[in-house]
Design a protein that fits this description.
CATH class of the largest domain: Mainly Alpha
Order of helices and strands: HHHHEEHHHHHHHH
Number of helices: 12
Distance between the termini: 80 Å
Strand content: under 5%
Mean pLDDT: 83
Shape: elongated
Structural class: mainly alpha
Length: 255
């Protein structure tokens, strides 16, 4: 009896939580998909066979499968079985965006990541942009120039301009990431546009920066395009710093 009690106590200490069980099951399917052992439309093993193979209870497996169905990874068809779904990027983008939005401290990191994403995207755009991409980019540039004094419309035009560059890169992963963080990026465009409304000198520099990026893409010059993009971001960062310093209270001297 004593030995049986000790075993029960030890088992309770090391028993995995539901979250750990889900993670184990999820990682198993992730490895199967990454290795090509599972592909979209494949039918999974039965619940009994999977639970035995994974060493988890059928109840835990069932809950994990429901969660993965909600994420769009699998599809449970009553009477037929469970099948791997073709990826729905929109669901993953929304989920990714919500997770980032729930972490306020990650905002600055998102903006830093944006620089890396767009600097590479603009290089690819120089190599891959088609005639229709260039036409859209020129139209997006004109929209930016026409809305320089409008906060909301101008900020959206600026966002669309950069989005057009991403699409001209013809890299689905870069576009996916950009769209996933789109809500936070739109916020940054509004904040930066608010900081320059009515400042003719800065608006002129901003307009020229956008023109320079388009000219470099049309010229198929990746090095110039990346340099123009980095200068554009640097210009925006400098203005943001000026805005913060300008709004900071003046230090007081002691009596």
């Amino acid at each position: 009896m004593e030995r049986r009690g000790r075993i029960t106590m030890e088992a309770s200490i090391v028993a995995p939580s539901e979250a750990q069980v889900f993670e184990e099951i999820f990682q198993f399917f992730k490895r199967q998909l990454a290795s090509g052992e599972l592909k979209p439309s494949d039918r999974l093993l039965s619940e009994r066979e999977l639970s035995q193979r994974l060493g988890v209870s059928r109840a835990s497996l069932r809950e994990a499968m429901r969660a993965m169905a909600l994420l769009g990874v699998i599809e449970i068809r009553p009477g037929q079985g469970t099948f791997v779904r073709s990826p729905d990027l929109r669901i993953l983008q929304d989920f990714f965006g919500v997770v980032l939005a729930m972490q306020p401290t990650v905002y600055d990191h998102v903006l830093e990541a944006r620089i890396a994403i767009e600097c590479h995207a603009v290089r690819l755009a120089c190599l891959r942009a088609e005639a229709e991409d260039v036409r859209r980019l020129q139209a997006a540039l004109q929209r930016v120039l026409d809305t320089v004094d409008d906060l909301e419309t101008g900020a959206e035009a600026d966002f669309k301009f950069h989005e057009t560059i991403l699409r001209a890169s013809h890299n689905e992963v870069l576009v996916f990431i950009h769209e996933a963080i789109g809500t936070l990026l739109r916020r940054s465009h509004v904040e930066r546009r608010a900081a320059v409304i009515g400042k003719a000198d800065y608006i002129a520099k901003l307009s020229q920066a956008h023109r320079g990026i388009v000219e470099a893409i049309v010229a198929r010059d990746p090095d110039r395009a990346e340099a123009e993009m980095r200068d554009h971001f640097l210009l925006a960062q400098e203005q943001a710093v000026r805005q913060v310093l300008g709004s900071a209270p003046m230090p007081t001297t002691g009596q």
